[in-house]
Design brief:
Chain A: It comes from Cryoendolithus antarcticus. The complex is a heterodimer of chains A (about 120) and B (about 260). By secondary structure, chain A is mostly helical. Chain A has 5 helices and no strands. In chain A, helix 1 runs antiparallel to helix 3. With about 260 residues, chain B is an alpha/beta fold. In chain B, strand 1 and strand 2 form a beta hairpin. Classes of the chains: A mainly alpha (about 120), B alpha/beta (about 260).
Amino acid sequence: MSWFTPTSPSSTLANPKASDDGGFIAPDRTARSQCWEGRDSFFVCLEKNGIVDSVKEDAKAREHCAPELKDFEKVCASSWVTYFKKRRVMEHQRDLTIKKLAAEGATPMEGSSAGGAGAAALRGK
Amino acid sequence: MRRTPDSTNARLIPASISIEWYERPDLTNSMASPEWTRAINTKSSASSDPFSWQAGLLFLLAGGGLTFYFRYEKARMSRARIAEANKGIGKPLVGGPFTLTDHNNEPFTNDNLKGKYSLVYFGFSHCPDICPEELDKMAGMIEAVKEKHGEGVLRNVFITCDPARDTPQVLKSYLAEFHPEVLGLTGTWQQVKDVCKAYRVYFSTPADVKPGQDYLVDHSIYFYLMDPDGDFVEAIGRNFTVPAAAKVINDHIADWKGKIDRS
């Protein structure tokens, strides 16, 4: 796949290639990590400019982080771009909620799977 | 020989009762002798004294041993209860009949899951970050189970929630990057919808997706552990680390009393 051309992934996320049996080839590890790097550099720029929600504040994001955003949209599929932007907002709000709860004195609860043995394994028994 | 009681004792006995007193020369006075007293003291060895250190140590060892045994049995019983809770008469909580096609284009049904423990994960190959992360974890779990129980004990299956884009060829190349033992399953939209329903997996892909469309699929993120009878055992969520998840699987495999087909 992209072993011979490491700089340009053969199956870029932006232009998925069709497989022989009617499907669409998924991005491989290299393509995924390139997309994640593009996302990370875009987010670093957003962080510097204090933008959390780059979907709502799209104009502002484009103004301050135009080159990073362009690169991000090049290496990632558009559905992934939207997903990562929304996820950033969700994670920010979740962190705020956790901070608020911790300030109110809540202690973190360990999540458990559907099953007592799972919870016990999580506690390290 | 008879000896009548002396006057002090006679006062305590009612006149209607006659008591015979016998002399016991062996018991009188000899026990009060110094030789006898010394013998009693030196005979108090460890085994007759309840508060010696050897007795204390034995007590602690027995107590500790019993505590460990009870804890082990309790854990085993709670695992057995979980495993058994999902068996029994009637419709299973998770799991059921399904028909799909594997990534070598061979048919695959729920009967193919029997014989070994199975780890089932639902996802799709165009997943941005969660499925790759979970599949890397799955590879770690597979290796941890192999380390503990050897080859051929666990079957590993990836069922796509995106049958339009995830054809057998796509799945085969996608999964090869994670672990050679993960088998990809796909099918028609209806077949995938049915297996998601059987496993209570949230499935949101529309039926009429146009080829080449760019979209994401929402799906629940769990590993489903099935036993060699094809029955559901436990669901392992995202919050589990690889060692914790591997421990859950390894413990269930160790508890299994029946035969596991290692072929």
